[in-house]
Amino acid sequence: MKSREQVEERARFLLQEELELRVKTSQEPLPTHCKYNFRQPLDHQKTLGGQPNPSYNRITLPVVGGPVDSTLGLCLYNCSSPTEWAGTICEDPLDAQNCPHRAFTPKYSPGQVYQQFVEDLRDGEWVIRHLPRIQPLLWVLGSMFEQSDTPFPRPGLFRRLKEALFPTRQLPPGPSAKVEIYLPPPPP
Fold first, then answer.
1. Within a domain: residue 54?
2. Is the pTM here over 0.70, yes or no?
3. CA distance 136 to 11
4. What is the Cα–Cα distance from 133 to 18, expressed in whole angstroms?
5. d(Cα 117, Cα 159) in Å, to the nearest integer?
6. Are residues 101 and 153 in the same domain?
7. Within-domain flag for 167
């Protein structure tokens, strides 16, 4: 049986690992992560005022296995001065990595990613769906170790056999422990 300190250490490690992954992912140079990227809806009107529409989007067939993406990624860097704005299309990951303006700026700072992570952890259903390795640890820390610092004794053979053959207990739908205790400090 694990001690309280071992369970807490594992919960802290898994939370730190998840937070680092989120921060790293949010800083990757992808069009969806750039604050200058704007998804412009494509024009689906065949006619405007009875006249043919020259900017009508003819690409309406769905990609095999997926829906039609009816938007186009535009780089809005320096768009406040129309004479200097190049009107660059930024649609693919390669476009963001080879940004001609060297203007890739992440939408969210590491601090904002941390705040969103804390909000997500407070939602028990989200934790169950997205962090299945952390939820049982938080439940154990919140319920079994609240009363004492020593772990509960191991159940007898008959009880363990009955639980193995006829599982009846399920974890409650959310962490019982206060997640803030086990969170790593916010990133700089």
1. no
2. no
3. 9
4. 11
5. 38
6. no
7. yes
* DSSP annotation of 150: S
What's the rounded Cα separation, in Å, for the pair 84 and 98?
A: 19
Tell me the residue range of the domain where 88 lies.
28-45+70-105
Cα separation of 19 and 27, whole Å?
A: 13
Q: Is residue 146 in a domain?
A: yes
Which of 81, 105, 129 terminates a domain? The answer is 105
d(CA 185, CA 10): 16
Q: Which of 56, 82, 105 is the last residue of a domain?
A: 105
Q: Are 176 and 26 in contact (CB under 8 A)?
A: no
**Residue 173: its pLDDT value, please?**
47
The structure tokens listed for 53 are 């529409």
Same domain, 34 and 95: yes
Total domains in the chain come to 2
How many whole angstroms separate alpha carbon 171 and alpha carbon 168?
Answer: 10
Q: Per-residue pLDDT tens for 24-76?
A: 999 998 998 999 888 887 777 777 788 877 766 655 555 555 555 677 888 88
- Phi, psi dihedral angles at 136 (to 5 degrees): -65, -35
Q: Which pLDDT tens digit goes with each residue over 161-176?
A: 776 777 655 545 445 4
CA distance 175 to 132: 11
For residue 145, being part of any structural domain is answered with yes
Query: Is pLDDT larger for residue 142 or for residue 149?
Result: 142
